Amino acid sequence: MRARPDLIEHLPRLRRYARALTGDVSRADDLVQDTLERALAKLDLWQPGSDLRAWLFTLMHNLFVNQIRVRRPHETAMEDALDEPVSGGQMDALAARDIHDALARLPEEQRAVLLLVGLEQFGYAEAAQVLGVPVGTVMSRLSRARERMRVMLAGGPAIKLKVVK
Amino acid sequence: MTDDVHEHDLHAYVDGTLPEPRRLEVEAWLAAHPADAARVQAWAAQNQSLHGAFDAVLNEPLPLALVRATRRPSIPAPFKTMAAMLAMLATGLVGYAIGLNAEQAPAAPVYFARDAAIAHTVFSPESRHPVEVDAAHADHLVAWLSKRVGTQLQAPDFRAQGFELLGGRLLAGETGPVAQFMYQDRIERRVTLYVRRAVAGNRETAFRHATENSVDVFYWIDGDFGYALSGQIGRQAIRVLADAAYAQLVTASVKP
């Protein structure tokens, strides 16, 4: 029997991603718990030497997508609907109170990409692997997510973004 | 040439994934294209905001249910429920059903040592957030942890043994809050002291030793508290620290 990898070192980061993805403490920890259960059940399928973290995030993503499908089966076409350019007149409607609010208003697919790249610091190819989509799709979702966030956060009256070089 | 900077270059610039020559080209492009520069600045600010909003999760007490879920032996599903029920009968504690199977139905102290070792493994390698409250605020740390754990705590002084107090954090145990004090020596080896209220009725004071995934743990129960000292500095060295902690804590508890 080969040595089992230790999942615990990935726990804090899985929790961070789940929290940002779901926006809810208990829903996030439920998602982490489901992910760990699935991971232990399928550990024999994981290739030793490959990136365990990416594999765990892949499992979590698949569980998350399944949950969304069960909750809201009719929202699959949302991303295209939200892909229209945003004009100044829509700014008020799009103004977000803060980063949590803005994230919650992103379509799930865009939110996942933004978080994997911007928060969890996955490379574009790794993010594509986690999400099971081509790199080109990751780039276009990232682009849409960042532009929507920019408009939402710029539209809020009390938002002060710290500008970094 | 900088007239072929594409959208994906701007993202890669923000995410720090461009090779140096390309990064310089993009920088030159941004200097000449203020609209793109503004977008890039906003995106970088988003990354910062995300870290500002969610990095604190890395520091939160880890729910023990999740910690146990990383250790559950994978046994076929139909046996899982049965094993959990057997374990519940064996220990009489529903909380311990999580993560147990029938072969592991030992007394509670074993879990205490294991939880202490897990907490040590999780937090001692952290370079950015090893502790929630650092030792510079030692009084505040002890007062805060005492309040949360529910009784006056004391952080033992291991300076004579070469270990400085680094700070502490609060963890979520299944019987309530747990305090973890972390110490570090000159070559940055770390030991942690895990303190929680003892299960009522337990008056055992003997030192016990356990090894969990190559972490040595000495644990003992003294009055209202259970203590576990964990580290990977050799069994004898941990024992010396545990003796020192025990002597100091006993002295402290008989003070008026």
Question: Helices, strands, pairings?
Answer:
The complex is a heterodimer of chains A (165) and B (256).
Chain A: H1 11-22, H2 25-41, H3 52-71, H4 78-81, H5 91-94, H6 99-104, H7 108-118, H8 124-131, H9 135-155
Chain B: H1 7-14, H2 20-32, H3 34-54, H4 64-69, H5 77-91, H6 108-123, E1 133-134, H7 138-149, E2 164-173, E3 176-184, E4 190-197, E5 208-212, E6 215-222, E7 225-231, H8 235-254
Antiparallel strand pairs in B: 1-2, 2-3, 3-4, 4-7, 5-6, 6-7
Helix pairs in contact in B: 1-3
> What is the CATH T-level topology of the largest domain in chain A?
Arc Repressor Mutant, subunit A
The general outline of chain A is globular
C-alpha Rg of chain A (nearest Å): 17 Å
CATH class of the largest domain in chain B: Alpha Beta
Structural class of chain B, please? alpha+beta
Query: In the CATH classification, which architecture of the largest domain in chain A applies?
Result: Orthogonal Bundle
Count every helix of chain A, treating DSSP H or I runs of 4 or more residues as helices: 9
Oligomer: heterodimer
The CATH class label of the largest domain in chain A is Mainly Alpha
CATH architecture of the largest domain in chain B: 2-Layer Sandwich
How would you describe the overall organization of this protein?
The complex is a heterodimer of chains A (165) and B (256). Chain A folds into two domains: 7-75, Rna Polymerase Sigma Factor, Chain: A (Orthogonal Bundle), CATH 1.10.1740.10; 77-158, Arc Repressor Mutant, subunit A. By secondary structure, chain A is an all-alpha fold. The radius of gyration of chain A is 17 Å and the shape is globular. Helices cover 62% and strands 0% of the residues of chain A. Chain B is of the alpha+beta class and 256 residues long. Chain B has three domains: 7-56, no CATH class; 60-106, no CATH class; 107-254, 2-Layer Sandwich (Phosphorylase Kinase, domain 1). Chain B has helices spanning 7-14, 20-32, 34-54, 64-69, 77-91, 108-123, 138-149, 235-254; strands spanning 133-134, 164-173, 176-184, 190-197, 208-212, 215-222, 225-231. Chain B has a seven-stranded antiparallel sheet with strand order 1-2-3-4-7-6-5. The longest helix of chain B has 21 residues, at 34-54. Chains A and B meet through α1, α2, α7 and α9 of A and α1, α3, α4 and α6 of B.
